[in-house]
Amino acid sequence: MKELGGWMPAGAAAEQLGVSRTQIHRLVDSGHLEGERPGRELFVSATSVQHRAQVVRPRAGQPLSPRMAWAVLTFASGRSPSWISPSEKVRVRKYVKAPLAQWPSRLARRAEIHRARLLPHILKGLRSTPEVARGGADAAVDHGSLLIGSEASEFYISAAVLADLKDTKGIRWNSPETEANVILRVVPPTLSAATIAEVLGQPLAPLAAAAADLLDRGDDRSVSAASALLKSVRLP
């Protein structure tokens, strides 16, 4: 079946990525693919399928668990994660030294992604909400990157904050990437309190998390900026 207006059926997306339809549904539900359900059938953005095929899927290695993903990001930000064992720390060091091309795949489970369009007053309030940390290009700039910020604001948030936002009027959920003005990365609630505090305890996400957000984009400028940012860190 042909793509229609930039969208393709879930079956076509599954065939292109070499996965099952069930996996396509999971990727859409977790925000790693952009999908729409105009009726009973799921359609997937051809752009997001292409991005996953070219940037995420070809890279070696299975995704790390959320716990280990955040251990890697904490270590790469110059701090020692308190929630891992000495043997796990050896693995973390190995992952940090791996090629950055592996990061989009390795760290995909660090958060669940939601794209939305927020009214200005809601967006302003979100910036000062507890358990919300700015990520993406804006955070990278505050960490010292020379990259120009993106049009969409990016935040790491807790599951509780997401629940509150779901009850808030004036938010258009599952907005197409071209219309969304906010990317929300929801930190898994199964993480330990120490891990969540490391991620959301400050208004700014850890440096390596901002770099990972840039690497997820896959364009040369973002990848170069992420690399420069990570090289500025003195590892523990």
Question: Could you explain the architecture of this structure?
Answer:
The chain is an alpha+beta fold and 236 residues long. The protein has 2 domains: 7-56; 66-231, no CATH class. It has helices at residues 10-17, 21-29, 46-56, 66-76, 86-97, 103-106, 120-127, 136-142, 159-166, 193-200, 207-217, 220-231; strands at 7-9, 35-36, 43-45, 112-118, 132-134, 153-157, 171-173, 182-186. The strands form 2 sheets. The chain has a 5-stranded mixed sheet. It has a 3-stranded antiparallel sheet with strand order 1-3-2. Strand 2 and strand 3 form a beta hairpin. Helix 8 (136-142) crosses helix 11 and helix 11 (207-217) runs antiparallel to helix 12 (220-231). The protein is globular. The termini are far apart.
Sum this structure up briefly.
The protein has 236 residues and is α+β, with helices and mostly antiparallel strands. The protein is 46% helix and 13% strand.
How are the SSEs ordered, and which strands pair?
Layout (H helix, E strand, L loop, with lengths): L6 E3 H8 L3 H9 L5 E2 L6 E3 H11 L9 H11 L9 H12 L5 H4 L5 E7 L1 H8 L4 E3 L1 H7 L10 E5 L1 H8 L4 E3 L8 E5 L6 H8 L6 H11 L2 H12 L5
Parallel strand pairs: 6-8
Antiparallel strand pairs: 1-3, 2-3, 4-7, 4-8, 5-6
Helix pairs in contact: 1-2, 4-5, 4-11, 8-11, 11-12
Supply database-style keywords.
236 residues; alpha+beta; five-stranded mixed beta sheet; three-stranded antiparallel beta sheet; 46% helix; globular
